[in-house]
Amino acid sequence: MMNNVQQLQTPAMVIDRAVVQRNIHHLAEYAKKVGLKIRPHTKTHKSRQVAAMQLEADAIGLAVAKVGEAAIMSAVCDDLLLAYPPVDAARATQLAALADGRAVRSAIDSTQALEVAAAAARSAQTTIGLLVDLDVGLGRTGVQSPGEALALARAIDSTVGVQLDGILVYPGHVWDPADQQRPALTAVAALLEETLDLWRRDGLEAKIVSGGSTPTAYQSHWVPQYTEIRPGTYVYNDMNTVHGGYCELKDCAARIVCTVMSDAVPGQVVIDAGSKTLTSDRCISAPESGHGYVAEYPEAKITHLSEEHGQVDVTACDRKPAIGERLTVVPNHICPCVNLQDTVWWLRPDQPLEPMAIDARGKIT
User: Fold this and answer.
1) pLDDT (tens digit per residue) in 229-244
2) Whether residue 155 sits in one domain with residue 181
């Protein structure tokens, strides 16, 4: 256990617990005000401890990326939604086993995924809840029309081993400023209403309409069909959410503490955090901003990452960081950065730093 951030071996991720709590409770207050439920996505933090904090703040359950993540989070939650189709028997078999004694659901967009999930559930003598994944604009996964959503819903409803629980959407294409999102989210609402109307006329019910993202989280009331939202990044935030205008720097809970290890090249220093720490992701709303924000030197720009080196242009800075100096970087995209860590450091006011394991680190299957 370390007594001071300056004593950490670097690079190291430090997470401010007070900021995490504030982010969690801020969203919980919004959701309560507009009558929405929260099912936070654990892909960001991958931590049972943080998941427990979200559940204590009235989250109804958890969203997970893969079955391995679901297995980890099943220790703290009995209501899990896999936002990923189980199209192979191995994944579906694990999912069906997890459904013994808890609510387990998955989003699907094909009859192949339906058949695999149903066969696994029948074999395990459990029931998997299924949500029809409807593409609302991102173009990644999801059936492409209300008619296709109805056809898949009918198939789910008539298949033994699974139950039709609703619809899942992901408005991941919406990165407009918060006060300009209404047209895009109104289009999502219209598509959902058309789909739900088809279902109702066919005698089908969508008890759950699951949507949302961190950029659109606080505008979710513009999609009145939602029953729950699944933001993930909001719990820590990052430079994507800062540059997008969805939070301020003070709302970024996770920072990478790193060390200046070279100043040999004029106008540049090199830090010991490269692509294996910060990832190579650029900011969606500010791709020219570099590979993260250096808190102590706002004018600096992380221009290039190799595996273990981060090259920082300091020509615009009033002074040049010294070799051995500690710098603090807010990452562009926090989710993959967390997945690169076995352990992070939990920061509390006037308390020694505490190690916190990333329980679902590397659970990508």
Assistant:
1) 999 999 999 999 999 9
2) yes
- In terms of Cβ atoms closer than 10 Å to its own Cβ (0-12, 13-18, 19+), residue 322 is exposed
Cβ-contact 41, 231 below 8 angstroms = yes
Shared-domain flag, residues 175 and 99:
yes
Residue-wise pLDDT tens digits, 306-337: 999 999 999 999 999 999 999 999 999 999 99
Element (H, E) at 79: strand 79-82
Instruction: Tokens 């099912």: give the residue.
Output: 39
Q: What percent of the chain has pLDDT over 90?
A: 97
The pair of three-digit structure tokens given for residue 51, joined into one six-digit string: 């998941």
**Residues belonging to the chain:** 365
Task: Check: CB of residue 57 under 8 Å from CB of residue 33.
Answer: no
Point out the domain boundary residue: 212, 235, 258.
235
Domain termination residue (choose one: 204, 235, 266): 235
Domain that holds residue 342: 5-10+242-357
